Amino acid sequence: MKSQTSTLSQNVSQKWAVTLCCEEQEKLESRVAKIVEYLAENWDLSNEWVISDIDATGRCGDRFTKKGNKQEVFSLSTWDLLGVLNEEGQVIELDATLIKSGDEVFKIIIRDGISVDVLGSGEVLPLTVIGKYVAVDNSWFLW
Fold first, then answer.
1. Residue 9: pLDDT band by 50, 70, 90 thresholds?
2. Cα distances (angstroms) measured from residue 36 to each of 69, 70, 139, 140
3. Between these two residues, 103 and 8, which has the higher pLDDT value?
4. Cα dist. 95→7, 11, 141 in Å?
5. In this structure, what DSSP letter does residue 9 have?
6. Residue 77 phi, psi dihedral angles, 5° rounding
7. How do residues 104-133 score in pLDDT, each as one tens digit?
8. pLDDT, averaged across the chain
């Protein structure tokens, strides 16, 4: 844990972006939940995600979608985000960012309920966490 935290603080300028390769039967919300859980347990980051876009179904998803429709940007705890990802429902759109000392250090983008992009700082997350992916040019995301 300590080496990952220090790697992040030393390499915050080293940015990367990947698109997850989901299997046909795989639920993308489960993949994203695994990443969010890993970040909460292993990185010295706040547990607040800045949400700039969300469209989700399910009890929690509907509630936060309504909140996002009223407010352009709002904060969501890691536990609330996991509630949306783990409930019976679907995340169609999501733009969630973790910030440390004023810098965006991780971002998760879900588009059309089928595409997931993960952007980060420092070392790419372990393959056991992030799963199969394709590296993409981080400048596509102005990252």
1. very low
2. 23, 25, 23, 22
3. 103
4. 25, 23, 12
5. H
6. -70, 160
7. 899 999 999 999 999 999 889 999 999 999
8. 88
- Gap between the Cα atoms of 15 and 22, Å rounded: 22
Cα–Cα distance between 25 and 133 in angstroms, integer? 16
Q: Which amino acid is at 89?
A: G
The DSSP code sequence of 67-93 is HHHH-SSEEEEHHHHHHHHHSSS-EEE
Domain boundaries, the chain: 27-136
For residue 141 the two structure tokens come to: 């995301």
> Given the DSSP bridges, would you call strands 15-20 and 115-121 parallel, antiparallel or unpaired?
antiparallel
More confident: 74 or 23 = 74
Show the beta-strand stretches assigned E in the chain.
15-20, 48-56, 74-77, 91-100, 103-111, 115-121, 133-136
Q: The whole model's pTM is what?
A: 0.87
**Side chain identity at residue 103, one-letter code:** D
Nearest in space to 35 (alpha carbons), one of 130, 122, 142: 130
